[in-house]
Amino acid sequence: MGRYSLGERSFSIGNALLLTVFAFLCVYPFWYILILSLNEGRDASLGGIYWWPRLYTLDNYRVMLSDNTILNAFWVTVKRTVIGTFGSLLITSLVAFALSRRELPGRQPLLFVFLFVMLFSGGLIPYYIQLMHLGLINNFWVYVLPSLFSIWNMFVMKTSFQNNIPESVVESVKLDGGGYLRIYIHIVLPFSMPLFAALGLFTAVGQWNDWFTGAFFVNDIQLQPLPTYLQRMLSTIEASQMISSSQMTTMNQTRLYNPDAITPKSVRMATIMITVLPILVVYPFVQRFFVKGVLIGSVKE
Predict the structure, then answer these.
(1) 3-state SS string over 253-295?
(2) I need a labelling partner for 180 at 20 to 30 A (CA). Which of 138, 236, 270, 292 fits?
(3) How far apart are CA 73 and CA 142, in angstroms?
(4) All domains of the chain, ordered by start, with CATH?
(5) Is the pTM of this model over 0.85?
């Protein structure tokens, strides 16, 4: 520290304090939701809970996890996220690899078409009509098929493939008799794993948090994902309507929970935590790919 001037030390301390406050403002809302979900609902409605649960209970999670509709919505979300993420990475990367090859016929017109479509869309009504003619309304595949190709991710991948895949390696594979599929599998994929990890996480988060598709294109509640179900709960004046009275009676008879310990708000807090938790668990495992994956291809040496 002796080699730093007073101004530099002051700036470092101020910067650390500012980032600490910013981190606290980002983390505390999640912590507040967590402690409310672990506290008795009637007691939480009295206020005064800020840091720790006052009357600890898991009844909010018992109520939520005993609702078959919520469990079904959770598995719909898991399926669409897994299938949609892997499918999108595969289709988008194949298109990006093809467009990264300068020998592709019609490459420039195709790039212009993709750029134009990315900037200008037909709007919601034509999109709905198209989905209806394709038979995707009230269909699970409405979550997957329209999102299999991302133009933005394609441009990012194309730039990465052009700048980071050595042409000499590609030519050596061609001399050995390998085709483009072999180049993609044995050259492109190993070189681009950080990029795939970063874009894969962005795609997965988008799939997991998407409530719009389920709310506007799916009427069958058995096909609606968890974010759509949560959005309905948060927009309903009495969220208790989302928990069937027959289910509540059965749970009371079997003494799975204390009915005085829960409120619609406390159940909503538990549902929010279940919705957010999977992404929070996955994020640390791919965080190390973020900087390298996002910046890869941005600079050509």
Answers:
(1) HCCCCCHHHCCHHHHHHHHHHHHHHHHHHHHHHHHHHHHHHHH
(2) 292
(3) 15
(4) 58-301 (1.10.3720.10)
(5) no
